[in-house]
Structure of Short-chain dehydrogenase:
Amino acid sequence: MENKNTILITGGQAEPNLLSTLEKYYSQQGWSVYFSQETEFHKMAMAIDEMTNGEKKLNAFIYISPPPRQGSMLDDDEHIIAETMNDDLERGLWWVQNACKKMVQQGVQGRVVTLAHIAALVPTEYYSYGAASQLALMNICRSAIQEMVPYGIKINTIFRGFSEEDPQQKAFVEQLKQLHNDDGIPLLEYVNAEDIAKTSMLLTDPDIHSFNGAMLTLDGGFYVTRKIRYLDPVRE
């Protein structure tokens, strides 16, 4: 029997475990899962056309931004800030545009998710420079939400936390844990692929209509920790 729903997942080539976990969870729920790493606008459109050939419709789409790279305002020799803004932002925008166009063409009330990193939302030492494109993409998508309302297309963003699988991210978090050791608020947990997959499935569920423009921080409390780290946790 043919699967009822179809999802296209793009990006994530640096995170094979995340891709395989997403595929596993969606496949278990009877979804047809497709992947693409195209970087050119017209090739993205062609990839979607090939995937939806025949009666198959595009019900959901996920764009995975690359893990944030360490950069610096004063020492940006590799031009990380400009590179990610010109690469990740442009690529993500093109993919979202093509996915929305196909959903409108097919009359599908689809679901779009951009998978970003918490460093794009919360200023951090070095990492946020390489993740600025992800926050920009979310803001563009929030403008697109108004345009997509008549078509029933919902666009949401997940800001995931730091990964223990990435040596650089792990080293950074372990330094933060030492720095905030006496804060009394130990909310620096790693995020895993299973949690990301389950949350993505929630946001792409065609039977849930209330999520639109949502910004979910799947970060183990990192966002909260950075907001309240300066408060004295001991009451007098």
Summary: Confidence is low (pLDDT under 50) at residues 231-236. The chain has one domain: 6-220.
